[in-house]
Amino acid sequence: MSSHRLALVFLATLPLACGESGAADASSASTLQGTVAVDGSSTVFPITEAVAEEFGKLHRQVRVTVGLSGTGGGMKKFAAGELAIAGASRPMKDSELAACQAQGIEFVELPVAFDGLSVVVNPANTWVTSMTVAELKAMWNKDSTAHTWKDLRADWPDRPFRLYAPGQDSGTFDYFTEVVTGAVGNCRADVTFSEDDNVLVSGVAGDEDGIGFFGFAYFEANASRLKLVAVDAGQGAVLPTLENIRTGAYAPLSRPLFIYVAIAEAKRLEIDAFVDYYLGQGRQLAAEVGYVPLPEDLAAAVRQRFDARTPGRADG
Asked: Model-level pTM?
């Protein structure tokens, strides 16, 4: 689902009222205690980690653990009842929804920021400044016969490229393969995969012929070691800047990021307070770690969705 489509879903189905949050008030902040378990997307991880750190300063007796097993890995744990909150860089799949339903787990889906999935090469790569979606497909899809840069463009060097990608449990992997190659998981096998985006950063940064993709925040944190590739979806080459991500001009690789909260777990004061903080101060923290915060109207709709414990996915 595109970022604009997501916004329309929320704004069309939710009245924009400012309901009272059920989170513990300031007077109980010093006595709040318990645990908050979060796992999932490595792309969402920087936001959640920042939220956990700042939340922990206010509620020192609450233990927050944040894992990064990938969107798919986090969803498996969430559907098994092992997590209160799962981070995801794509909407929940039908199969994951069915797994939650089979275990009687009701949840609320909450967008928390927008991201521009970023294609990067090594700074020593002087020939690639932009690529079309068709060229990316020719490079990455499982039936690809391309092995050198020259196979993609005649004026590029006759040198083999090397591919770096998030692991196949990653929502980033799912999203990229779907919008670029036309089907989730449609990817060639001769790729260096990792669920840790820092491994991918290091791989491309150390390989003159490397090319990879991951969330914009990881590029921002390593801009001196990497070179962004502009993507041309038919309207000219566009770089993933914060403004281009916010407006949707960076197509088709702009996307929403989510957390999923188990409704039964949200009855616990520490979970309610953590999510409340995430939806409030988390907007600023998302910007600080390199993502695009939700606009105020969408943020208000998302907060009301949590306060009302509106179950299920936003798209029904």
From this structure: 0.84
